[in-house]
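Here is a protein:
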Amino acid sequence: MNKEKGSEMENGTLTIGDKAPDFSVTAINKDGQLALSDFVGRSPVFLNFMRGLHCPFCRRAMAQIQQIDKQLEGMGVE
């Protein structure tokens, strides 16, 4: 938990309007890592965290996201 004084995450919780902390994950569509900071200043970002494709709920969520993918793209969401 980030407990830096004056930080948006002083108590470990983000609220609406807070800046998300930077983090990185292994990219699934290219080599290397993807960091949230890679998208700063570009466009809104849609994040979806899933357990994996072995999870039936995750597969259902992925199918639903694919249905609105073009809509999100049209709104400038990456």
User: Anything to note?
Assistant: Helices lie at 56-67, 69-74. The two ends are 28 Å apart (CA to CA). The first strand starts at residue 24 and ends at 26.
